[in-house]
Amino acid sequence: MLINGALINGSLINGPPAQATISVEAAYSSRYTCILTGTTGLALPISSFQARYRSGRPTYLSVTVPSGADYYDEISDRSDGQLVLTRTIYGIDGTELSSGEVMRVDLEDIELYQGSSSYSITLTGHRTTSNGIPHTVELSGASYRSVRNGSRRYRCSPHNQLRPGDTAQIYGDEFVVDSVSWYANSRSETFEVVEAE
Fold first, then answer.
1. Which SS3 state, helix, strand or coil, does residue 68 take?
2. Is residue 1 part of a domain?
3. Lowest CB count within 10 Å: 24, 40, 44, 92, which one?
4. Is the pLDDT of residue 24 over 60?
5. CA distance from start to end of the chain
6. Domain boundary pick from 127, 161, 178
7. Domain check: are 164 and 141 in the same one?
8. CA distance linking residue 15 with residue 6, whole number of Å
C-alpha cells in the first residue's frame, strides 16, 4: 500500500483544495475529487468519503472536509448545491487511464466538528436515480467473499460504472447487484457488492 505524503502533511489537509490519492494495487491508483456546485463550483479537499447505492432507494454520500472552518462560509453559500464525486484512475507509471463521475447527490446536511486543534466538516446528501439501461460489468481484485441468506457479497476493486441492477461478473460468479457500498480514506478504499435476493 502506497500513501501519498501530501495527503497527511501537505495540500490535502493543511493546504488548498487537492485531490485524494489512494493506491490500491501495484497496477493502478485512484484519485478522488469532490466539487460542490453553485453559481461557481467549489473544489473541496476530502480526507474520506462513504457512499452507498441501493436498488429502489436513494443513493447516499458523505464526505469529510478537513480544515472545515476555512470552507464553512463558501459551503453555506452553496447549501442548495450538489456534491459531485469523481474518480480518476492512473497506471503505475502515472498515466491517466480513465476518469468519470461516480456519484452526484443533493446536499442536505452540513455538520461542523471541532477537535482539540482543528475543525472538520461532514457533508451529506441523497439522490434517487434509476438504472435505465442495466449492463454487465466485470470486476476484479476480490479480497473477500461471503454468502448470507443465499445472497453473495464481494469486496473487490472499485468500478466507476457499476450500479444496482447491473450484472456483476467476478471470478466465474455472475449475479444481479442489489447494493454497492464504497468507502475511501488516505490509507485504503473498500468496495463491496451485494447480490439481489
1. helix
2. no
3. 40
4. no
5. 34
6. 127
7. yes
8. 9
Contact 185, 196 (CB under 8 A): no
Domain count, the chain: 2
Residue 154 burial (CB count, 10 A)? 22
Q: Which residues, 6 or more positions from 115, have their beta carbon under 8 angstroms from its beta carbon?
A: none
Residue where a domain stops, chosen among 127, 160, 184:
127
Q: How far is CA 143 from the centre of its chain?
A: 19
Could you tell me the pTM of the whole model? 0.81
Give the pLDDT confidence of 49-65 residue by residue, as tens digits: 999 998 778 999 999 99
DSSP assignment of 114-174: E-SS-EEEEEEEEE----SS--EEE-----EEEEETTEEEEE----TT--TTSEEEETTEE
Same domain, 86 and 109: yes
102: helix, coil or strand?
strand
Sequence-separated (6 or more) residues with CB below 8 Å from residue 129: 59
Spatial separation of the C-alpha atoms in residues 57 and 130, rounded to whole Å: 9
Q: Contact 192/149 with Cβ under 8 angstroms? A: no
Residues 58 and 146 in one domain: no
In whole numbers, what is the pLDDT of the chain averaged over residues?
85
* Contact between residue 94 and residue 87 where contact means Cβ atoms under 8 Å apart: no
Give the domain range for residue 155.
Answer: 136-195
Residue 13: enclosing H or E segment and its boundaries?
Answer: helix 11-14
